[in-house]
Predict the structure of Saccharopine dehydrogenase-like C-terminal domain-containing protein.
Amino acid sequence: MVGVFIGLLGGVGFGKWLLLKFPLIFSLGFFRKKGPTEEEVESASFKIWFVGHGFSDESIASQGNIKPNMEIITRVMGPEGGYQATSIILIQCALIVLCQRNNLPKGGVYPPGIIFGPTDLQQRLQQNGISFDIISKTNISS
């Protein structure tokens, strides 16, 4: 039903105005103009699982066309992701850029892992309610 409303009304100017003016009605209560209440934010959290494949030893990886022999499963958990966790992460990254500039690579464009790898970002995030856990680390038979 929501898709029908959006599909029919979203293509014309007046329909777009209606959708933006009365989102609660046309989304059957799923969307509203106001953000979440403080109680909703406080009760929310996130949990992300990562599965990685790699090598148990660097010497194995350098041997050429060999399949990974390790699997690791990790979990990252924290408070509500949109308002709380995003703020925590951005503030801690900014503090590192300000206070630990000597630990950061000089010049160029780098991915976050390279930039923040030699810093204490993980410890800072853990101190502020975002946890990083290794769930399992197993050998994969070839």
Q: What stands out?
A: Strands lie at 45-54, 70-79, 131-139. The chain is about 45% helix and 20% strand.
